[in-house]
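Message: Study each token:
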Amino acid sequence: KVTATASRERIVNFSVPYYFDGGIIATKDTSIQKLTDLQSSKIAVLKNSSTIAPLRYYLPKVELVGVESYLEGQSLIENNQVTAFAADITSLSNWIKQNPQYRLLPTKISTQPLSVVMPKGLQYDELRRQVSQLIGSYLEKGWLKQRAEYWGL
């Protein structure tokens, strides 16, 4: 899964988006019910994540703690070094299935398009068109929506 971003688009081409993921926050602290409950807290976030900017926007007073992996983020929460972990919805949804003591806060803090990555160049235009047409067809028929529901996204 690759997020289509302007900086990446300088070096590769993207298909039309097949899914819109986004940033969200997970916690095990039952007193945390909404974003504003996290003011002045510590939140783990993957280093260089696209989730950092929306976190700084919505929660300017929180302390962000950069982590290298989901396991490191989980370890920080388990050891009460952070109150929450922010990442993309797809990954955290799967993480929570395996760790039911955590839950997602109801507010999505960002939305990012996921697309197929292809090389730049005129020789790849036909491939890009075909991939985008196929994705468009799957979207129109509802197949991608069914898959997302099946996967619990």
In short: The chain has a mean pLDDT of 92. The helical segments are 6-9, 52-58, 70-78, 89-98, 125-141, 143-150.
